[in-house]
Amino acid sequence: MMKTTIQEENNNQVVYFEGRLDTSASSQVQMDVQPLINDIKSDIILNCEKLDYISSSGLRIFLSILKSAKACNKHVYIQGLNTDLRQVFTMTGFINLFEFK
User: CA-based Rg of the chain, rounded to a whole angstrom?
Assistant: First the structure.
């Protein structure tokens, strides 16, 4: 079960991911974050403190958020990556694309 929550905090848009962002969950998560991607008003924080797993389709969602934010001259920060997720980001090179809090 994957849960995605978007909130505005301290002039940032914060996306909370909870559960496993695998291929089966990615289409729902993509729909959940699409309004954010379509209307980027501020910097974005992707909160991964409760994210247990991310697949390649999940990484693509993170990348689409990043591309949209960069087009609007905004930043995307990732916070709360556990050791396993940090390893995935390192192996895929995503560690160099994102800023971390």
Answer: 12
